[in-house]
Amino acid sequence: MREGPDIARIASLVGDPARANMLSALMDGGALTASELALEAGVGLPTASSHLAKLGDGGLLSQSSQGRHRYFRLAGPQVAAMLEAIMGVAETAGPKRARPGPRDASMREARVCYDHLAGEHAVAMLDGFFTRGILDQGKDGVVMGKAGPSFFAAAGIDLSTLPGKRRPVCRACLDWSVRRSHLAGSLGAAILDRILEQKWARRDAQSRAIRFTPPGRRAFERTFLA
Amino acid sequence: MREGPDIARIASLVGDPARANMLSALMDGGALTASELALEAGVGLPTASSHLAKLGDGGLLSQSSQGRHRYFRLAGPQVAAMLEAIMGVAETAGPKRARPGPRDASMREARVCYDHLAGEHAVAMLDGFFTRGILDQGKDGVVMGKAGPSFFAAAGIDLSTLPGKRRPVCRACLDWSVRRSHLAGSLGAAILDRILEQKWARRDAQSRAIRFTPPGRRAFERTFLA
DNA sequence: CGCATGGTTTGATCCTAGTCGAAGCATCTT
DNA sequence: AAGATGCTTCGACTAGGATCAAACCATGCG
């Protein structure tokens, strides 16, 4: 008999297919209503409501009521990181899975992870930041490097607005498709915002995939990849 | 209805208390027999056998038969990393938990994570490695730095024996208690080996905690922490 | 107001999955 | 061989939990 964190309790929350679908649907960091999540999970409204209550009690979801709508979102970046970690082993440890099709390929290339960019592009970007001294691996994880401030200013990102919230500015997040780190934290979120704001890419409505336009991809590479 | 990795399948494997206990017991990277795991999980032998079969099919455990014993261990470092991630949210998202007692305090300070050192000491060590140029954050994650070879030679670790296996030499692993990275990979494993071999510390028999002897702690700090 | 819409609660149903006793294999010991 | 030990399989029992229909609140709109 062991002690330690009650891992079974929260794993069993994720272990139900309906709840897992809901959580996956929220992995893009957005907020959805109970009925949307019911649809997403392929389950009736009462069932969904019950599931959502459990996820709320379990601390995986936060809820906010607006009028007669009730919005649910992931409780925080840690929850998203955990889900990515589970996806990682599901991908490799899972039984013979159909090889990732074209849709999955675009997910591998670029997708939203909670509120920041993930996938091959994001991993390459973080690598470049390190080698160019834009970010550094410091005492408290990832930290701003010497070349950082001027770089981000040139890229149109205002660093002064980032601190102040409770979340760290820089954070590393393990990528389940590439299995290397990409940049999370408020800086990661700001970069994704910038990409979308410039209309270099748009979010797929159905999945978490990010689709770059051809000129957008070039602009992204010119700006963020050396 | 979503696609993507079958997250519910593997989360539900972890979601059963008996299986969660077994997995926790294996988090130290060691191998245990079916009966030991049954005891650890507080469950009968037939039940344990059934659980172990499921964990094996699910790809979370690897098994090896030696004589009439059957040994089980975690399938790989990714599985351990996932479990640590789940522990992380269980720790924060969990409901009012009893504040960590003395035993948990020693776990936070130093413990085994699969096959390498985790906890505050390990996080401080990796930080020091980065600032002293012993390791660097390179294109492919953590990589040997300029000062590395001479440093590890002085510390009694033979780098030439490390590569060759399928696992990376250096890897970052997110620490659930401190929520910052520590060093995994074969180099991380070699450092832990060295610490135990020098008898600077011993492993707690019951938990994953690592207990330094007073002179051992000084030697560790002198050797690995600046 | 009255009605529609979004969400929760209740109650009943059903089924999966965890549990163990007993019997069955396999392997080691004597 | 005969016995002991470690583990798995089989069979039966049970409990927990997922599900939905129907009734019940709450909010917004005309």
UniProtKB/TrEMBL annotation, chains A, B:
Q: Which residues form the HTH arsR-type domain?
A: 1-94
In alphabetical order, the GO MF annotations are: cadmium ion sensor activity; DNA binding; DNA-binding transcription factor activity; lead ion binding
Which InterPro entries does the record match to this protein? Answer: ArsR-like_HTH, HTH_ArsR_DNA-bd_dom, HTH_Metal-responsive_Reg, WH-like_DNA-bd_sf, WH_DNA-bd_sf
| Single GO BP term | response to cadmium ion
Q: Which Pfam families match?
A: HTH_20
Q: What is this protein called?
A: Transcriptional regulator
Report the source organism. Kumtagia ephedrae
